[in-house]
C-alpha cells in the first residue's frame, strides 16, 4: 500500500471516530437524532414505481462518499456559540437531524394519499422506531392492501355534438380502459386530455370542471364501475346551464410597442389583418402573420393559441408578447389581439483571455456585435472578431518565435425554414431556425501560415415537447490554404530523411472539405433542462459525410489528379469520408444530495475514395477535461502509441475511432460547492495502419487491452447559469507501456500520472 493510500485510510478512520464519539454532545436531552430512515413494503415494486422514499419528510444527515462529513465538521465547532470560529464551522457543517414526530405523521399521510390515488384504497402505513442511546432508526412499514381496477366505463354526454366525439373515435385515445387500475392521477390526466380535445375543436369555454367522474364500488369486490359525465356548460359555476358553443376566430389585430387602446396610434391594414404601432412598425407584417397559427374564420384551437404565444416569446427580438381573446357580443366569434413588443436591437460583448500552452504565455482578445432584428423579422445578425498572440520558446532553426492568430465570423440566424415548399406556420410550430455563416481564420506560426475559410448553411428545429432536437447541416464548406511552410519544418517533419509522414503531410496541404450532416439529440427532461442530479438521460447521434458529390462530378468528367493521386476540383484536392458518433449519458438520483452519472460514447470515421487520411479537424483525440481525465488534452493514444516524438504528437496522437466510458459519483457539499469521484476509460485508434503511429491500429483481438483507465476527484461550483469545474485525474492503466508501468495504479507517481483540468460545464 502506498503512502497516499495510507493517508486516505487514516483520514477516513479519524472522521469516523470523530463522528461516532461526539455527535451525542450536540443532541438535547430527551431528543434523538436520525441515524437511519427506511421505507419497506409488502410490495417492493410499489416503492420504486411511486417513489415513496421521496415522501419522507425527514432524512438523516447527508453522506458524502459514504460518510457524514458535514455532520463531522459540525461536531468540530464546540459548544461555545459566542466564538466566531464556532459559528463559521457550524455554517460549513450540518447540525444533527433531530427526530420530529409531527413530520413523521405527515410522511405516513403523504404515503397513504399517494397509494390511495393509485388505487390502493385500504393502504396502511405504520412507523417503527428503534432507539439506542441518542440514535433513532425509523422504518415506515407500508401495507398496500388490494388494488382496485375499473370493470366498466360509461360515458354520459348531454350535448349531441360532443357525444359524437367523446363516445366515438375519441374512445381510442382514452387513457382509461377496462381492467385499468383505478388511478386518480390517471383520471386527472384523462380529464385534462378531454378538455384539450374539446378546446382544440373550437369549444373555447370548455374546461375540466365540465367533466365529472363517478365511481361505484361493488361490495366485497375490488372492481369499480366508472361513469364519465359531461353536462351543459356553467360559466364560473354561477350562470344558467347552456349548451357548449363552438367559437371561430374573428378579426386578428397586432399591437407593437403600444397599448390595446387604439387612440393616438399609427395603424394600417394588410390583407385581413390590422396593425397598430407607435411611430414605426418594428416587425414586418408578413413576419407577424406567418408566426400566428390561428386563422381568421377558422375554429378556435387551443394548441394553435399556445404555439403562437410560445413562438413569439422564444424570439430574442421580442421583449414581451401576449394574446387577448375577446368574445364579440351576440356572435360565436373571438376577436384576437396580439401584443408583440420589440427588445433593444443591439448588444455588444468583449472577452480577454490569458493563455499558457506548455509554458508559452499569450493573450487573446475578442469582440462581438449582435443585432436582434436586422431585417425586421427577428433575424439575429452576429459579427465576431478575435485576435491572439503567443510568445513561443524552445524553437530552433526558425526565423521568428511569435505566433499570432486573427479571426472573423459573421452569421445570420433566421427564425424560419429557408427552403421552398415548406410552410412557415409549420416551421414556426417546431421552433425552426436557419443559419447562414461565414468565417475566416488566419494562423501565423514560425513553422507555417494557415488560412481557413468556412461557409455554412444549417437548420435546427425541436418537437413540441422540447425533448427532441434536430440539426441539419445542408452544406458546410471548409477551404484550408497553406501559403507558406518553413523549410525547417518541412525537412524535420513532413519529409524527414526522405521518409514522408503521411498524416502530417496530408494536413499541411491545401484542402477542400464539403460537409453534409445531421444531428439528433434527445433529452428526457426537455432540451432546456439539465439532467444534473436527476433521474434522466440524454442521447445524441451524429452522422456526416464529405466529398461524395465532388467525387461523382470529378470521376465522371475525368478530372485531373494531383501528385498524390487525388482528384482535384478547381485545382484543389478535396476530402472524402463518412463519420458517425453516438453519445449516451444517464443521471441516477440516489437522494437529494447524491447522484450517479454514467456516460458512454463511440465515434467512427472512415476516409475513402479521394482520401486515405482524415482531415485534422475531423480526427478524434483523447484525454482532457471531457475525456479520460488521467491524461492531458490530446495526449492519449492511439492504441498503444507512446508519443515518442514530442514535436508532432498533436498530429500523431489522433485517430479514426474513439471510445469513452465514465462513471461519476456526485455529492452536494455546502453552499454552491459539490464534489465528485470518477473512473474514466477509453482510447482512440486508427482504422488503417500508419508507420508514424505504431500500435495505433484498431484490432478486435487487441483493442480491449489498449483501453486506458483513470480515476480521480473533482470540485464543482454551481452558479446556476454555468458551472465551474476542477478535476484531478490519476492514471490507473496506461496502454502506452507494458510490464509494471502498464498498471500505474499499483505504484502511482504524482509527477508522472497526475493531470489537472479546469473547465466550464459538466463533462457529460
Mean pLDDT: 86
Q: Provide the structure class.
A: alpha+beta
Q: Major β-sheet, in short? A: 16 strands, antiparallel
Distance between the termini: 33 Å
In helices, the fraction of residues equals 10-25%
Number of strands: 31
Number of helices: 15
CA radius of gyration: 33 Å
Tell me the strand order in the biggest sheet. Answer: 12-13-14-15-16-17-18-21-22-25-26-27-28-29-30-31
- Unreliable parts: 16-21
Share of β-strand residues: 35-45%
Shape: globular
Structure description:
The protein is an alpha+beta fold. Helix content is 18%, strand content 39%. It has 15 helices and 31 strands. The strands form 6 sheets. It has a 16-stranded antiparallel β-sheet. Strands 8-9-7-11-10 form a 5-stranded mixed β-sheet. A 3-stranded mixed β-sheet has the order 1-3-2. The longest helix is centred in the N-terminal third of the chain and has 20 residues. About 1% of the residues have low confidence.
Amino acid at each position: 500500500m502506498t503512502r497516499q493510500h495510507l493517508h486516505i485510510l487514516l483520514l477516513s478512520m479519524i472522521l469516523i471516530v470523530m463522528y461516532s464519539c461526539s455527535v451525542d454532545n450536540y443532541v438535547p436531552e430527551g431528543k434523538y437524532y436520525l441515524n437511519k430512515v427506511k421505507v419497506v413494503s409488502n410490495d417492493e415494486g410499489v416503492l420504486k414505481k411511486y417513489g415513496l422514499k421521496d415522501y419522507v419528510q425527514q432524512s438523516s444527515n447527508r453522506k458524502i462518499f459514504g460518510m457524514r462529513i458535514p455532520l463531522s465538521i459540525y461536531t468540530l465547532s464546540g459548544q461555545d456559540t459566542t466564538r466566531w470560529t464556532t459559528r463559521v464551522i457550524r455554517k460549513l457543517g450540518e447540525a444533527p437531524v433531530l427526530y420530529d414526530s409531527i413530520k413523521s405523521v405527515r410522511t405516513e399521510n403523504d404515503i397513504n394519499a399517494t397509494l390511495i390515488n393509485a388505487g390502493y384504497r385500504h393502504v396502511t402505513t405504520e412507523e417503527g422506531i428503534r432507539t439506542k442511546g441518542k440514535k433513532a432508526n425509523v422504518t415506515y412499514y407500508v401495507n398496500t392492501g388490494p388494488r382496485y381496477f375499473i370493470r366498466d366505463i360509461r360515458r354520459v354526454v348531454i350535448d349531441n355534438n360532443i357525444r359524437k366525439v367523446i363516445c366515438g373515435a375519441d374512445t381510442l385515445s382514452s387513457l382509461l380502459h377496462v381492467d385499468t387500475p383505478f388511478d386518480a392521477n390517471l383520471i386527472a390526466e384523462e380529464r385534462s386530455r378531454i378538455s384539450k380535445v374539446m378546446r382544440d375543436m373550437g369549444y373555447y369555454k370548455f374546461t375540466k370542471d365540465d367533466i365529472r367522474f363517478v365511481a361505484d364500488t361493488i361490495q366485497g369486490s375490488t372492481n369499480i364501475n366508472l361513469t364519465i359525465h359531461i353536462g351543459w356548460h356553467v360559466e364560473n359555476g354561477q350562470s344558467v346551464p347552456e349548451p357548449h358553443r363552438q367559437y371561430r376566430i374573428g378579426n386578428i389585430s397586432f399591437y407593437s410597442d403600444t397599448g390595446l387602446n387604439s387612440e393616438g396610434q399609427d395603424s394600417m391594414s394588410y390583407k385581413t389583418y390590422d396593425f397598430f404601432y407607435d411611430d414605426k412598425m418594428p416587425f414586418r407584417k408578413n413576419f407577424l402573420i406567418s408566426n400566428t397559427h390561428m386563422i381568421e374564420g377558422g375554429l378556435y384551437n387551443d394548441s394553435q393559441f399556445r404555439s403562437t404565444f410560445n413562438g413569439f416569446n422564444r424570439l430574442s427580438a421580442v421583449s414581451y408578447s401576449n394574446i387577448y381573446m375577446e368574445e364579440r357580443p351576440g356572435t360565436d366569434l373571438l376577436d384576437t389581439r396580439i401584443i408583440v413588443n420589440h427588445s433593444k436591437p443591439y448588444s455588444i460583448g468583449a472577452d480577454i483571455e490569458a493563455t499558457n500552452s506548455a509554458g508559452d504565455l499569450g493573450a487573446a482578445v475578442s469582440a462581438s456585435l449582435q443585432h436582434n432584428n436586422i431585417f425586421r423579422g427577428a433575424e439575429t445578425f452576429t459579427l465576431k472578431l478575435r485576435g491572439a498572440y503567443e510568445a513561443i520558446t524552445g524553437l530552433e532553426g526558425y526565423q521568428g518565435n511569435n505566433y499570432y492568430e486573427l479571426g472573423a465570423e459573421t452569421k445570420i440566424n433566421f427564425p424560419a425554414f429557408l427552403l421552398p415548399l415548406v410552410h412557415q406556420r409549420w416551421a414556426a410550430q417546431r421552433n425552426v431556425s436557419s443559419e447562414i455563416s461565414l468565417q475566416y481564420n488566419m494562423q501565423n506560426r514560425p513553422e507555417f501560415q494557415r488560412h481557413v475559410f468556412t461557409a455554412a448553411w444549417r437548420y435546427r428545429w425541436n418537437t413540441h415537447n422540447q425533448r427532441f432536437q434536430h440539426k441539419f447541416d445542408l452544406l458546410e464548406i471548409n477551404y484550408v490554404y497553406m501559403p507558406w511552410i518553413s523549410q525547417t519544418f518541412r525537412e524535420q517533419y513532413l519529409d524527414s530523411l526522405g521518409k514522408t509522414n503521411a498524416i502530417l503531410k496530408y494536413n499541411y496541404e491545401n484542402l477542400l472539405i464539403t460537409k453534409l450532416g445531421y444531428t439528433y439529440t434527445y433529452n428526457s427532461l426537455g432540451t432546456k433542462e439539465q439532467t444534473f442530479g436527476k433521474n434522466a438521460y440524454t442521447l445524441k447521434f451524429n452522422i456526416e459525410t464529405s466529398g461524395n458529390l465532388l467525387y461523382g462530378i470529378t470521376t465522371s468528367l475525368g478530372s485531373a489528379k494531383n501528385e498524390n493521386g487525388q482528384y482535384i476540383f478547381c485545382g484543389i484536392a478535396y476530402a472524402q469520408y463518412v463519420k458517425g458518433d453516438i453519445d449516451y449519458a444517464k443521471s441516477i438520483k440516489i437522494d437529494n444530495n447524491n447522484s450517479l452519472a454514467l456516460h458512454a460514447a463511440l465515434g467512427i470515421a472512415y476516409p475513402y475514395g479521394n482520401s486515405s487520411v482524415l482531415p485534422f479537424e475531423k480526427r478524434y483525440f483523447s484525454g482532457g477535461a471531457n475525456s479520460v481525465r488521467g491524461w492531458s488534452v490530446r495526449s492519449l493514444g492511439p492504441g498503444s502509441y507512446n508519443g515518442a516524438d514530442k514535436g508532432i504528437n498533436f498530429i500523431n496522437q489522433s485517430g479514426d475511432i474513439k471510445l469513452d466510458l465514465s462513471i461519476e459519483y456526485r455529492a452536494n457539499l455546502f453552499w454552491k460547492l459539490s464534489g465528485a469521484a470518477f473512473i474514466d476509460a477509453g482510447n482512440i485508434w486508427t482504422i488503417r495502419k500508419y508507420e508514424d503511429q505504431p500500435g495505433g491500429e484498431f484490432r478486435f483481438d487487441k483493442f480491449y487491452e489498449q483501453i486506458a483507465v483513470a480515476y480521480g476527484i473533482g470540485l464543482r461550483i454551481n452558479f446556476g447559469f454555468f458551472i465551474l469545474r476542477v478535476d484531478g485525474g490519476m492514471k490507473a492503466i496506461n496502454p502506452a507501456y507494458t510490464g509494471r508501468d502498464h498498471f500505474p495504479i499499483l505504484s502511482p507517481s504524482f509527477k508522472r500520472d497526475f493531470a489537472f483540468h479546469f473547465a466550464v460545464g459538466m463533462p457529460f
